[in-house]
Structure formats: structure tokens, C-alpha cells
Automatic annotation (TrEMBL):
<dbReference type="Pfam" id="PF03862">
    <property type="entry name" value="SpoVAC_SpoVAEB"/>
</dbReference>
<feature type="transmembrane region" description="Helical">
    <location>
        <begin position="128"/>
        <end position="148"/>
    </location>
</feature>
<keyword id="KW-0812">Transmembrane</keyword>
<feature type="transmembrane region" description="Helical">
    <location>
        <begin position="63"/>
        <end position="81"/>
    </location>
</feature>
<feature type="transmembrane region" description="Helical">
    <location>
        <begin position="29"/>
        <end position="51"/>
    </location>
</feature>
<dbReference type="InterPro" id="IPR014203">
    <property type="entry name" value="Spore_V_AC"/>
</dbReference>
<keyword id="KW-1133">Transmembrane helix</keyword>
<feature type="transmembrane region" description="Helical">
    <location>
        <begin position="88"/>
        <end position="108"/>
    </location>
</feature>
<protein>
    <submittedName>
        <fullName>Stage V sporulation protein AC</fullName>
    </submittedName>
</protein>
<keyword id="KW-0472">Membrane</keyword>
<dbReference type="InterPro" id="IPR005562">
    <property type="entry name" value="SpoVA"/>
</dbReference>
Length: 150
């Protein structure tokens, strides 16, 4: 007796859907919220330290950004940020430390290919589109602001 190809495909689809793990959406959202919030708390703590030293708010914010990018890059370099990201998910991607991770991780991965074709060429593979669309959208918003709000 010959089994039809359609029945085999249908059975395979049913079997594969039943065997794949169910997503833990609520748990993942809670982890992202808590760990992303902790990252933001660290940023606020650093900002408060700069303010306590008498830096103006804008300069303190700039230094906080620099410090958070450094922390994200450093933690990526020593292999800790990936472990945080495994638990936090989007909570580790959204803050600026996630941007630092997206620049440093490919650079580390392709270091063996050399500085030009490895590090320099691959450094912005993930962060590049973010920069392009971020800068492009800011230019568009700036033009709209200039012509319609000003």
C-alpha cells in the first residue's frame, strides 16, 4: 500500500509543530523589562554621579552615554554581555549598551580575518543599518521641523 505524499507532508508538519518548544512570552517580557530597567538604572546612576561632580546636565548626559557605550563594549569583549542578552532578550538590545554590543561582537568575531577585511569591514554589519536609518530619519524630521514648525 502506497502512502500519499500529501499525507506524509501533513504528518510531518503536525509532528514538527507538536515537537517545537512553546515560547515563554510572559517570562521573556518580564526578563526584558527587569534587566532593561536595570541597565537604565545603571545609566541613571552614572548620570547622577556626573551631576554630583557639578557637570551641566547636557555634558553629564554626553559623558553618561560614553560611559554606557564603554561598559557595553567592555562587557561584550569579556563575554559577559552575551550571557546577559540570553536572559534579557530585547531588554539588552534597546539601551545604548546594545548598540555597543552590536558593533563590538562582529569585530571580535571577524578579528581573525585581519583588521581591514575582518574588524573594519564587519564591525558595522549589524549597527550599520541602524546608523543609516537613524541618521536618515533624523534628517527628514529636521527638515520637517525647519519648514513647518519654525
Amino acid at each position: 500500500m502506497k502512502v500519499s505524499e500529501e499525507k506524509v507532508k501533513r504528518d510531518f508538519k503536525t509532528l514538527s509543530q507538536n515537537s517545537k518548544p512553546k515560547p515563554k512570552i510572559v517570562k521573556n517580557c518580564i526578563n526584558a523589562f527587569i534587566i532593561g530597567g536595570l541597565i537604565c538604572d545603571v545609566g541613571q546612576f552614572i548620570s547622577n554621579i556626573f551631576m554630583s561632580f557639578g557637570f551641566p546636565k547636557e555634558i553629564g548626559a554626553n559623558y553618561t552615554t560614553i560611559a554606557m557605550v564603554f561598559i557595553g563594549a567592555f562587557l561584550t569583549g569579556i563575554g559577559v554581555y552575551d550571557k546577559i542578552a540570553n536572559v534579557a532578550g530585547a531588554g539588552s538590545i534597546v539601551p545604548i549598551t546594545g548598540f555597543a554590543n552590536s558593533v563590538v561582537a562582529p569585530a571580535i568575531e571577524f578579528k581573525k580575518e585581519g583588521f581591514v577585511f575582518g574588524v573594519a569591514a564587519k564591525m558595522f554589519t549589524i549597527a550599520g543599518p541602524v546608523l543609516v536609518y537613524g541618521i536618515g530619519s533624523s534628517v527628514i524630521v529636521g527638515i520637517i521641523y525647519y519648514f513647518f514648525v519654525k
